[in-house]
Amino acid sequence: AQSVSQHNHHVILSEAASLELGCNYSYGGTVNLFWYVQYPGQHLQLLLKYFSGDPLVKGIKGFEAEFIKSKFSFNLRKPSVQWSDTAEYFCAVNARNTGGFKTIFGAGTRLFVKA
Amino acid sequence: DADVTQTPRNRITKTGKRIMLECSQTKGHDRMYWYRQDPGLGLRLIYYSFDVKDINKGEISDGYSVSRQAQAKFSLSLESAIPNQTALYFCATSDTGTGGYNEQFFGPGTRLTVL
């Protein structure tokens, strides 16, 4: 069965620290990869996505992610976090399976940035 | 103006009651989804619909049913609510896109409490 693992459930950083959130998936076929963000009290919104091409993708608010196919990974990074980045981050994988297309979400990582 | 709306936003009900959560979208998307979000578990797919005549079970459909009344409307019902259905419920939509892959757009969520 397909699965998505996010390694850290809670991360606490100080402003200006660098961020890397891990995401690994289990699926051997072609996938499309997403990071969504949920700010406190808000709904999920897309941060960035990878469909094909350059495995280093850039999203909104200075976030980027790198798809490493050999490692089944799609880690999210930001060089310098801000207090406003406090949110929950979800990795998601969309892949074709026998039932059609399905998106699987990771359990999420709660990021708290200290001012 | 919100593209994906959910009603109600909050609901408290008692065990055994029938509850309906409604979702409407103005994005013109064919695909609609219902998820529940629980702390530490991320988003889990309850049901999804790729068009008005297509309804599919997700990973946790037991105890739930859905109705796709129109392209723009997708309702989730709990026939007999139980306390472990207390959660945050999200509706989402997506376009068909190339190859069937595309980002999802989420509603604001419905916080349901079953006493």
Average pLDDT for all residues of chain B: 91
Q: From the alpha carbons, calculate the radius of gyration of chain B and give it in angstroms.
A: 13 Å
The greatest interface here is: A-B, 25 and 22 residues
- Extended strand count of chain B: 11
Distance between the termini of chain A: 41 Å
Helicity level of chain A, as a percent range? Answer: under 10%
Shape of chain A: globular
Distance N to C terminus of chain B = 33 Å
Largest sheet of chain A: 6 strands, mixed
Structural class of chain A: mainly beta
Oligomer: heterodimer
Which ranges of chain B are low-confidence, i.e. pLDDT below 50, for 5 or more consecutive residues?
none
List low-confidence stretches of chain A: none
Structural class, judged by helices and strands of chain B?
Answer: mainly beta
**Gyration radius over CA of chain A:** 14 Å
The coarse silhouette of chain B is: globular
Task: Explain what you see.
The complex is a heterodimer of chains A (115) and B (115). Chain A is an all-beta fold and 115 residues long. Chain A has no helices and twelve strands. In chain A, the strands form three sheets. In chain A, strands 2, 5, 6, 10, 11 and 12 form a six-stranded mixed beta sheet that branches. A four-stranded antiparallel beta sheet of chain A has the order 3-9-8-7, with no helix packed on it. Chain A starts with a strand and ends with a strand. The model of chain A has no long low-confidence stretch (mean pLDDT 91). With 115 residues, chain B is mainly β. In chain B, 0% of the residues lie in helices and 57% in strands.
